[in-house]
Design a protein that fits this description.
The chain is an all-alpha fold. The protein has one domain. It is built from seven helices and two strands, in the order ααααββααα. It has a two-stranded antiparallel ribbon with strand order 1-2. α3 packs antiparallel against α7. The longest helix is centred in the first third of the chain and has 25 residues. The protein is elongated.
C-alpha cells in the first residue's frame, strides 16, 4: 500500500470547531467593515476610557495621592493635616477626600482603592456621571440598532 491508499482508508478530518459557518463569517465581515460601527466603537472607547483611567490612576497607591494633592494645590485648596478644610470642585466640597488622600500618604496609599471607589460613586450621582452613563447607553443602543440593520 502506498501513501495515497492510506489516506483514502483513514477517516476524513472533521472541520475544526473554531471555524464559523459561511453565513456567520459573511455577517462578521460585514460588521467589521462597516464604517459607522467602527466610529461608534471608537466613540464608546473615547467615552469610557478617560473616566476609567482617571479612577484607576487614583486607586494606585502613592500615585493617586500625588495626583490628588497636586490637583488640590492647583485649585487653591488648603492642604493642612490638622483638620478637614473646604475644597470646592465643580460646586462640590471635596475637602474630606483631599484630607483622606493627604493622610493616607503616610500609610503608603493603602486606602486609595476605597477612596477611588467612593469618588466614582459620587461621580455617578452627579450630573457629569449621569451624562456620562447616558452617553454610553446611547452609543450602545446606536451600535445595536446598526448591527441589526446590517444583518
Amino acid at each position: 500500500m502506498n501513501n495515497c491508499d492510506l489516506q483514502k482508508l483513514s477517516p476524513s478530518r472533521k472541520p475544526s470547531r473554531s471555524r464559523k459557518p459561511p453565513k456567520k463569517r459573511a455577517r462578521a465581515a460585514r460588521l467589521a467593515e462597516d464604517p459607522v460601527l467602527k466610529r461608534l466603537r471608537v466613540l464608546l472607547w473615547g467615552i469610557v476610557s478617560p473616566v476609567t483611567l482617571l479612577f484607576v490612576l487614583l486607586a494606585i497607591p502613592l500615585l493617586g495621592n500625588f495626583i490628588v494633592i497636586e490637583v488640590a494645590s492647583r485649585l487653591g485648596c488648603n492642604l493642612g493635616e490638622n483638620a478637614v478644610h473646604p475644597c470646592l470642585v465643580l460646586g462640590h466640597d471635596m475637602g474630606s477626600f483631599v484630607y483622606g488622600y493627604l493622610v493616607d500618604i503616610f500609610i503608603l496609599g493603602a486606602f486609595n482603592p476605597f477612596f477611588s471607589a467612593e469618588l466614582f460613586v459620587r461621580f455617578l450621582h452627579g450630573l457629569a456621571g449621569i451624562l456620562w452613563m447616558l452617553g454610553i447607553a446611547a452609543t450602545i443602543v446606536a451600535r445595536t440598532i446598526r448591527r441589526h440593520s446590517l444583518s
